[in-house]
Specification:
Layout lengths: L2 H17 L2 H4 L2 H5 L11 H11 L7 H4 L8 H18 L3 H16 L1
Helix pairs in contact: 6-7
Length: about 110
């Protein structure tokens, strides 16, 4: 895929996502957790919308831009993320924990 094709797919996805209402944004997991008051499934769509609007977006090609001989390579990052996924599975953590961990690693490496 060329870069323009990727951008076109991304824009199409974002426009479709913007058209969805909050009830359609509830994932299967949120629907299962609707009876659990501590999971706050009723507010999940609003929380995700807020996170998308306010989160720090990371450049997809940040490793290429900060590539120095002493810096982390793409393969090193891949091994790190693979290890984190293994730890995540072993301790049966919530999927949000994995996503947050990968996001924090990417934010740290992009600086």
């Amino acid at each position: 895929m060329t870069q323009t094709k990727v951008e076109q797919v991304r824009c199409d996805f974002q426009s479709r996502l913007a058209k969805l209402n909050k009830t359609e944004l509830l994932t299967f997991t949120d629907k299962l957790d609707a009876h659990e008051p501590l999971s706050c499934a009723d507010y999940a769509a609003t929380v995700y919308e807020n996170m998308r609007a306010t989160e720090c977006l990371i450049d997809q090609h940040y490793l290429e831009k900060v590539q120095l001989p002493t810096e982390v390579k793409e393969t090193s990052r891949a091994f790190l993320i693979e290890w984190i996924i293994d730890v995540h599975r072993k301790f049966r953590l919530a999927s949000e924990t994995l996503y947050l961990t990968v996001h924090l690693i990417d934010r740290f490496l992009s600086l």
